[in-house]
């Protein structure tokens, strides 16, 4: 039982931290994924692990391990034209299905999701091709990956990871923990809040939500209000690499995100007011409403 709201948040953070065994099990599929891609793509290069597990923003069970399959330019070219990324995703799915025949496999946005453990141990496989380097010193590789609509979208996983690590350090490591709490909120709600994790991470970092002497409670409330006020608008990549980064896939999802954020902003604001007034038990009740009963009890 927690005595203060901060202790409740610290307990919640410990609950949602991925276990090393969980992460290792998901990463253990790397060799088989490499074999599958090698069999399908003649110029396949290697598999890298990217995503939230490399940015310290992953949470227990719900954050998939992201594999990035580096393909050769000839693998995504027909004649002198780039093929549809939907074609590349279909080929990736077919290759993985041949290796994991009894596993549910589906395309989701820029990735092929391999649903190990009935989804609880899922991994995402994102095919992509080298597209140059950043203009920074040092330089970082830039890739093109599927945009979920048949086109291609530029990204630099290593450069974005460095940006988020630098911003995390600037906030005294509050940024990564606040993002974890926001992801816990996303998955605790029913239905889940349809916000894309990459958008969420870059938005909270770029807006400096966690900069300065602020509590996690204030960081969360400010994040919810920011999401509410933006109403699902896309974000300009603060590094200028990926262009516009969508918050959600459809207009209906953007509306759902806005409504969920409005509710969370209201209840977390009430929690802050109760805590300041010394009504700690009431503050816990409001945080439980925010996190749909998943927040620890006092």
In short:
The longest helix has 26 residues, at 251-276. The strands form three sheets. Strands 1, 2, 5, 6, 7, 8 and 9 form a seven-stranded mixed beta sheet that branches. Strands 3-4 form a two-stranded antiparallel ribbon. A two-stranded antiparallel ribbon has the order 10-11. A hairpin with a 2-residue loop joins β5 and β6.
Description:
The protein is α+β, with helices and mostly antiparallel strands and 298 residues long. It has one domain (5-290). It has ten helices and eleven strands. The protein has helices at 5-16, 20-27, 30-40, 85-99, 157-170, 174-188, 197-206, 216-230, 251-276, 280-290; strands at 46-50, 65-71, 77-78, 81-82, 105-108, 111-114, 123-133, 141-146, 152-155, 235-236, 244-245. The strands form three sheets. Strands 1, 2, 5, 6, 7, 8 and 9 form a seven-stranded mixed beta sheet that branches. Helix 6 (174-188) runs antiparallel to helix 7, helix 6 (174-188) packs across helix 8 and helix 8 runs antiparallel to helix 9. It starts with a helix and ends in an 8-residue tail after the last helix. The model has no long low-confidence stretch (mean pLDDT 93).
Count of helix runs: 10
Query: Taking Cα atoms only, what radius of gyration do you get, to the nearest Å?
Result: 20 Å
Stretches where pLDDT falls below 50 for ≥5 residues? none
Mean pLDDT figure? 93
Class based on secondary structure composition and strand pairing: alpha+beta
Largest sheet: 7 strands, mixed
Order of helix and strand elements from N to C terminus? HHHEEEEHEEEEEHHHHEEHH
Proportion in helices: 40-55%
How many β-strand stretches? 11
What is the end-to-end distance?
Answer: 5 Å
Strand content: 15-25%
The global form is: globular
- Taken together, the total number of domains comes to 1
